[in-house]
Amino acid sequence: MTSIPQCLSVRTFVVVAPRAAWQRERMPSERYEDLFRTWGGEFVATCHDTATGAFMFICVHSTSRGPAAGGLRMKEYASPLDAMQDGMRLSSAMTLKMAICDAPLGGGKSVIAIPAGALPTLRKKILTRYAALLDSVHGAYYAAPDMNTGPADMDFIYEQTPYVFCRSAERGGSGSTTRHTALGVFHSILASAEHALGTRNISGRSVAVQGVGEVGAALVELLVQAGARVIVSDASAERVADVASRFGVAHAAPEQIASTPCDIYAPCAIGGVLNARSIPELRCAAIAGAANNQLETPEDDARLRERGIVYAPDFVASAGGVLHGVGIERWRWSEAQVDAAVARLGGILLDVFAAARSGGIGTHAAAERLARAKLGITEPS
Ligand code: PHE
Q1: Is the pLDDT of residue 13 over 50?
Q2: Tens digits of per-residue pLDDT, 201-218?
Q3: DSSP letters of 194-217?
Q4: 3-state SS class at 354
Q5: Rounded distance from Cα 362 to ligand 1 centre (Å)
Q6: What is the reported pLDDT for 62?
Q7: Which residues have a Cβ under 8 Å from the Cβ of 205 and sit 6 or more positions away?
Q8: What are the phi and psi torsion angles at 352 (to 5°)?
Q9: For a substitution probing ligand 1, which of 322, 326, 328, 330 has the most ligand atoms within 8 Å of its CB?
Q10: Strands annotated E in the chain
Q11: Can you tell me the distance from the alpha carbon of 337 to that of 57, in angstroms, rounded to the nearest whole number?
């Protein structure tokens, strides 16, 4: 009997090891070329801020529907190339997100690779340099809040350049996207429950929320109000303790949340959580969360389909933030109009699930098809 696992491990070695070695040995310049060749976006404005050591990338994926827009993310990365790669992938997803929302904008994202531990002391310095870089692309891209940035940062950038969404309400902006992003995920959860469980009533149903930062915590509140049984996790024990006590919900260890038996799994933290390693371990009927780029590779879409797990594509589930910023600032919508548009994300998802089922394809592929049709990109037959 033991010969089976051994045989598997030999196979794994043969198939995986050469690729890993190839990636390790690859010259950074070749990887740089590869990133641009495979991305398919328009341009990346780059700078290294000598004063702070930060590397900055404004990735403009598409301006075909209008100027690009998307969040500004500040993070510590293993290398500047990793940061650029993250920005590129996130910017492609923004193009799809904008199209799904029918927003007159293209997709972009900016990423600032922060030197270790620098954020608390160097934030203003870094943002000053970033604002100059943003200004230099003359409105081809608009920044918005994202991981580690918020309306106060947009106010600060706006002092130097007008190309931002979601300044604070006091400064004439639409303010934080948190509530509408969480509401969009909530409606996505209801639609996923309808498709996977045959009911939109989530009272008594279990939802595992991975990551209780601002959006995750706001989502927990909505779920608890709807009577769901919520289990939370977060890399920060402090945040978990706070949310667990505020809303009276259970918690799990960060490494266990994805495999926790539940009706719905809601990834609301880092990307890449749905992959060849995690998908076999999942114990949920459906997935809907706020995290960007949840699939590690395009193949993970088919892996989820094979397991019969209903996946709400991330660029639809997390589109509430865009509807907030664009709705209020461009379309002059009221809160109620934004709420109604965010609720319609659930209907879009039901269409996506139906198209995936009838087309025999993954839900991410089906949503991408819908977005690409809105972008006027015809599929090869
Ligand atoms: N940063 C959010 C996102 O990337 C929200 C947002 C983007 C809001 C663009 C307004 C405009 O989805």
Answers
A1: no
A2: 999 999 999 999 999 999
A3: HHHHS-S--TT-EEEEE--SHHHH
A4: helix
A5: 25
A6: 97
A7: 193, 197, 228, 229, 263, 264
A8: -65, -45
A9: 322
A10: 43-48, 55-62, 68-75, 106-113, 141-145, 206-210, 229-233, 250-251, 264-267, 286-287, 310-311
A11: 34
The alpha carbon of 351 and the centre of ligand 1 are apart by a number of angstroms equal to 23
Residue with tokens 């608890």: 224
Average pLDDT value for the chain: 92
Domains, in order of start, for the chain: 12-171 (3.40.50.10860), 178-319+346-375 (3.40.50.720)
**Closest to 67 in 3D by CA, of 1, 160, 163:** 163
Q: Report the candidate in 46, 49, 54, 51 with the shortest Cα–Cα distance to residue 114.
A: 54
CA neighbor of 278 nearest in space, from 244, 247, 250, 254 = 254
- CA distances, 60 to each of 74, 237, 293, 350 (Å): 17, 36, 17, 30
Strand, helix or coil at 177? coil
* Structural tokens at position 356: 């995936």
